[in-house]
Amino acid sequence: MDFSFTEEQDMLRILARDFLAKECPKAKVREMAKDERGYDPQMWHSMAELGWMGLIFPEEYGGMGASFMDLVILIEEMGRNILPSPFFSTIALCALPLLEYGSSEQKIKFLPRIAKGEAIWTFALAESSGRYKASEVKLRAVLEGTNYVLQGYKLFVTDAHVADYILVVGRTGESERPEDGITLFMVDARGPNVEMEAIPTIGGDRQFKVSFDRVAVPKDNILGKIGNGWDIVDFILQRAAVLKCAEMSGACQAVLDMTSSYAKERIQFDRPIGSFQAIQHKLADMVIDVEAVQYLLYQAAWGISIGSPLPWQISAAKAKANEAYQRICIEAIAAHGAIGYTMDHDIGLYYRRVRAAEFAAGDTDLHREVIATGLGL
Amino acid sequence: MDFRLGEKELALKEEIRKFAEAELPPDLMRNTLIDGEYRDFEFEISMSRKLAQRGWLVMSWPEKYGGRGTSLWEQTIYEMEIAYWGIPGAWMGISGTQWVGPCLMMFGIEEQRKKYLPLIASGEKDGIWCTCYSEPNAGSDFANIQTRAVKDGDDYIINGQKVWTSAAHRARWCWLAARTAPNVAKKHQGISIFIVDMKSPGVTVNPILNYYGRHHFNEVFFDNVRVPASNLVGEENKGWYYLMQSLAFERRSIAPTTYGSLKRILEELAKYAGQTEYEGQPLSQNPVIRTKLADLAIDLEVLKMFAFQLAWRISQGQIPVYESSRNKIMGDEVMRRGAITGAEILGIYSQVDPDSEWAKLNGTIQGAYLGFPGQAIAAGTAEIEKSIIAQFRLGLPKSY
Questions:
Q1: How far does the CA of residue B29 sit from the closest CA of chain A (Å)?
Q2: Based on the domain organization, do B229 and B265 belong to the same domain?
Q3: Cα separation, A39 vs A31, whole angstroms
Q4: Res B35 pLDDT > 90
Q5: Segments making up each domain of chain A, as ranges
Q6: Is residue B244 part of a domain?
Q7: Among all residues of chain B, which has the CA nearest to that of A258?
Q8: A143 touches chain B (CB under 8 A)
Q9: Is A249 left (phi over 0), alpha (psi -120 to 50) or beta?
Q10: Is the distance from CB of B362 to CB of B29 less than 8 angstroms?
Q11: Are A217 and A141 in contact (CB under 8 A)?
């Protein structure tokens, strides 16, 4: 066993941390929460120049050929800084399945543009129940001539308003197993009959209801095989669970660091509050949570990096991150006192993002169910 | 990063499984958890001998002291599997293999190593140790020990009282922390480590029963006990440093052993839930039970990663500071969760005496339930461990 990162990985982390510290201070995060687009195209362009979008694409698609673990490191740093950007929607939710399931024509057509930062993508799965179950996919796709015609709507689609393409999960057939008859479509987000309505969230990120009213999608824009799309959804949810976990891991570390520093500076009863055991023990619990998330995350990411994803370990990591991120934020606010409850303080920025992070790629119940089944229950 | 176990570790795991299936009666597990050791000492020592014959008992020690010089990875797997199967007799009185031996290798003189290490490695009764640290007024405030060792010619004369001494009633030797310099600026100065023959005149061992009436620990009195000066370990008055190292060895093995026992409990509970019907369906289909067992499994996975991460740090030649405390807290948490979840799954049967024929799962869950509050205190309370993390991981001021 080896718990160390390579020198290149350490370099990548430092580079990302420095870039984000400079380009994405908390003032920027606050500004973007009010911005109509919700991200800074200038920064997006710089990120592409650094090779971040194509980090794990092969060179033939304009990428750097890095590993999944490298992507985890990068996203941990993004999470630490709460980078507002459609990076997760584009890369974690769409580019990875394109890379795995796309035809060579599709890959050549779409991936280099993503790598250059010229295309934004997002993924549309959830419907009215908000659950990631095949039985909940009602959006219909019916073959008419050479096109499939989509009818229905999707909820909680992130960054849809700035997306060029939406990867839409639709139903092309009915059968006993709800997983059968699911197909993934790459839909032009700016095409006719695609309508968006913002769903305001407490996290300040951009999420939408996207309606498809007889939207025609050419057969060429099907990802993978017709009717077998749920395998791709599983693939996406597994990778996205690990990458969201990376984002949460970075956020947890940032909140711990912030709270530990505050405990050393804040004087009450003539001494730093960090000298009181009530505060120390809260912080010690936070350390344990932070490291629990880190090591479960690295184990899950390693499995994917060597081409042997470990579904059980992935679910353990995401379930733990869901629980830990929330607990760390709440304890951190308590340790800060009233200042932690204000708009001006950064802790709230992290706390407000807890709910979105939990539901991204599966809430705790969904992942517990994977684990329970793995235990033979 | 790489989280694969090596071929040697995988093979060892398999060998221990075969060993356990061949050598153990099927209902053994409950005894370890409830007592911290086995009531049947003769059976325990017969297992120690067998572990020694297999070359497992002190596998990570160098060959010249009876070991095989295996890696810490193999040692970690060994500890996990011993605990998983509930194999008794593996630690030679808890401290023999786990910290007395390793400390003697680091701080002892060759004469001491040659005399004591092969005894531990033999798996015989003469290799069993107890550790005398705590005193009535030195619990968490360990440096406050008052037991005195006074130089008298070629001997030291020891006077004082120790308490919560595990296995003292079975031990041939004692690893003793005593005060050699009473007037020092700081309490942790002036402490030394001695090896004491438990058969020496003036040593008295009295049992202390735990709240379930089991005998695991003791109080030990030293009344003018004469110990040859050659039994001093390392330098006089440097004992605190050796103690910190011994505690690091002790705390390192807590995560692997807790992981092993609780993994077994989790598996037994999952099996039980599958076989027990309630309202026309197996308990395993009940969403509350599924949630609780899944949460236990997640924390157990964390404990496993913590155990391996600590082993990795040591294998890199680094000296872990707060990680052992982190692992101790996580281990306690997993034990508590396992015991309580187990009790909830057994329902009304969780109150049955573990020795009774009415007991489910051989009384394992009652053992864990009765045992975990005590285990959580041994080797450092959660409060002390959390203060260590705050101080050494986060750089907060010392708070005690």
A1: 21
A2: no
A3: 9
A4: no
A5: 7-119, 122-228, 231-374
A6: no
A7: B394
A8: no
A9: alpha
A10: yes
A11: yes
Average pLDDT, chain B: 93
B281 plus B375 within the same structural domain: yes
pLDDT of residue A203: 92
pLDDT (0 to 100) of residue B30: 55
Contact B3 A302 (CB under 8 A): yes
Looking at the fold, whether B84 and B134 belong to one and the same domain comes out as no
Q: Are B265 and B146 in a shared domain?
A: no
CB A165 within 8 Å of CB A186: yes
Q: How far from each other are the two terminal CA atoms of chain A, in whole angstroms? A: 30
pTM of the complete model? 0.96
Residue of chain B whose Cα is closest to the Cα of A300:
B3
Percent share of chain B, pLDDT over 90: 85
Interchain CB contact of A275 with B (< 8 Å): yes
Number of domains in chain B: 3
Same domain for B158 and B71, yes or no, is no
**What is the CATH T-level fold of the domain A122-228, as seen in this structure?**
Butyryl-CoA Dehydrogenase, subunit A; domain 2 (2.40.110)
Asked if residue B223 is part of any domain, the answer here is yes
Q: What is the mean pLDDT of chain A?
A: 97
For the residues A175-181, what does the mean pLDDT come to? Answer: 95
- Across the range A307-317, mean pLDDT stands at 97
Given the structure tokens 């709240």, which residue do they identify?
B211
Question: Which amino acid is residue B164, in one-letter code?
Answer: W
One domain for residues B344 and B257: yes
Q: How confident is the model at residue B362 (pLDDT cuts 50, 70, 90)?
A: confident
| Whole-number pLDDT of residue B400 | 87
Q: Which residues contact A141 (CB under 8 A, 6 or more apart)?
A: A148, A149, A150, A151, A170, A171, A172, A183, A185, A217
For A7-119, CATH gives 1.10.540.10
Q: Which of A276, A285, A296 sits opposite B301 (nearest CB)?
A: A296
Q: Answer whether residue B166 is part of any domain.
A: yes
Contact at CB, A272 and B397, closer than 8 angstroms: yes
The answer to whether A194 and A150 are in contact (CB under 8 A) is: no
Last residue in a domain, options B186, B210, B239: B239
Among B271, B294, B312, beta carbon nearest to A368: B294
A314: closest CA of chain B, how far (Å): 11
Q: Residue A373 has what pLDDT?
A: 96
Residues B79-122 pLDDT 10s:
999 999 989 999 999 899 999 999 999 999 999 999 999 999 99
Q: Is the pLDDT of residue A79 over 60?
A: yes
Contacts (Cβ under 8 Å, ≥6 apart) of A371? A312, A315, A316, A319, B294, B297, B298
Q: Range of B55's domain? A: 7-90
Do B317 and B346 lie in one domain? The reply is: yes
Domain boundary residue, one of B42, B59, B90: B90
- Whole-angstrom Cα distance, residue A279 to residue A224? 53
Task: Indicate if B223 and B261 belong to the same structural domain.
Answer: no
What is the pLDDT averaged over residues B261-274? Answer: 95
Domain A231-374 has CATH 1.20.140.10: yes
Average pLDDT over residues B207-230: 94
Place of tokens 């470990």: A310
Which chain B residues contact residue A3 at CB under 8 A?
A: 1, 308-309, 312-313
- Tell if the CB–CB gap between A274 and B290 is shorter than 8 Å: no
Given phi > 0 = left and psi -120 to 50 = alpha, else beta, which region is A224? left
Instruction: Spell out which residues of chain A touch residue B396, defining contact as CB-CB under 8 Å.
Output: 260, 263-264, 272, 274-275, 280, 283
Residue B246 inside a domain? The answer is no
Cα(B62)–Cα(B56) distance, integer angstroms: 12
Which CATH number belongs to the domain containing residue B45 in this structure? 1.10.540.10
Which of B79, B19, B29 is closest to B331 using CA atoms? B79
Q: What is the pLDDT of residue B39?
A: 75
Strand positions, DSSP E, chain B: 129-132, 148-152, 155-166, 173-179, 191-197, 203-209, 215-228, 232-233, 277-278, 281-282
